[in-house]
């Protein structure tokens, strides 16, 4: 958390944007323009791209500009400095901001993913993998304080592995360099997002042996959030949530191939077959939330994981940082 807040202060005057895309073109001159900052570009966020490509935002009178702000710290800084109206990022960031006493709280109002999105990849083939195989190994994990790392360590502990004593845990590699470090020979196991995990498997650089998403249970891994003032102004948040819900229903009722074809413009350097493989894997383990409600059980599971990792500044009531009324209204229409 300390690293997170230092970076928040460092970037407080700058919105770090690596990728900008007007994702929806509208002929409606009265369309309301909003900026959405996503923490990374990922197939894990397929319903968001479906909402953009299928015109669900446009149907609600919204013109969405999508920007990519790599890292939870940069994404939240962009939101807090009014560089974006809505942020797509891990719910833990709203807890970190709350702990600093924000005058205009950041509220989670629509959930997009409901499991961890990473996979355990081994360097060598493993027959009949068990978590005991990690003992004595070198494990290349994710950045300390981030949700992937916290969920990863939580899963290890749930399976009887002490991350600090049963293996050599490496956490000082920057997120963008983790896959490169593993490919260069660092670690016996690595925690990776898709499509990198599948690419490594196809290229023979690694082998997917387990899913952290399946092991950690339902958590609000990635949600849309905004300042309380934005949510309270007019119908924009409701229109946004309605478009996301339409996309969630669409993803639930369409095949991985159909989804891959729709979202492929956002992944021009990735083969369609690989996008389909990744979508299928995420659908199979229920990573895509089927509705935008972030419920109490998921919120408590998130805080339990943060607490176990020693990163929870204080427990926060579900009602304090989560708005479910908008999602419930949209779903009841």
UniProtKB/TrEMBL annotation:
GO CC field: periplasmic space
One Pfam family in the UniProt entry: NMT1_2
Sorted UniProt keywords: Signal
Top-rank taxon, per record: Bacteria
Subcellular location: Periplasm
Family note: Belongs to the bacterial solute-binding protein SsuA/TauA family.
Gene3D superfamilies in the record: Periplasmic binding protein-like II
Protein name per UniProt: SsuA/THI5-like domain-containing protein
Primary location recorded for the protein, binned into one broad class: periplasm
Phylogenetic lineage: Bacteria, Bacillati, Bacillota, Bacilli, Bacillales
Signal peptide region: 1-23
PROSITE patterns hit by this protein: PROKAR_LIPOPROTEIN
PANTHER family noted in UniProt: ALIPHATIC SULFONATES-BINDING PROTEIN-RELATED, TAURINE-BINDING PERIPLASMIC PROTEIN
